[in-house]
Amino acid sequence: MRLLATLLCLCVITATAHAARPMITDDARLTDGGACQVESWVHLHGSQHELWALPACNPGGNFELTFGGALAWADGRQESGALVIQGKTLLKPLESNGYGIGFAAGYATQPGSAHTGNPYFYVPVSFSLADEHVVIHTNLGYTRERENQENRLTWGLGSEVQLTPRAWLIAESYGQDKGNPFFQMGVRYWIVPGHVQVDTTYGSRFGAISDQHWFSIGLRLISPSLF
Questions:
Q1: 12: helix, coil or strand?
Q2: How is domain 2-222 classified at the CATH fold level?
Q3: Domain boundaries in the chain?
């Protein structure tokens, strides 16, 4: 509870990044220029539980820096956590009924293997349809899996569909050039439009749905201009 309270206080002061929670597939958008955000969520995956917080800021208008990570528990015992640091910029801003292109690169570790991180980069391309009531996101990138000494192509395909002025339906699939892809679906809802958002998702992996499914609940807070 103390940790959760600390994260909530952090969210009030700042606020997070990228393809708005809860999507894994990133978008060709940034946090508003001069503002910050924090995405935080609980990820429940069988006996493993993760608590994430990813603060991000865009001080100059076209460069967003994300720095955060996770705490993890498995079978009731704490494991090594995770770390994420990423920079992102736009090559072409997303326009209504148009498209946008970005570029992102970073370094990330996974819960349970915090000492073996992977550098990566990807290109997000987003398409706005029906006056932004439908937005499609595509990602294509590369990661170096240092633990296995392998290079992997990464990809993602996601969609956002507006259900009401405050509610959105999301669905996506993502993966690498080897192995079965993952999928995720859920909803996000603006409690305070543009500033406070909650979400929930269900996801799993094709070919192992009953064994690798997860559930998440998230909170996203976006600040007014700070810079």
A1: helix
A2: Porin (2.40.160)
A3: 2-222
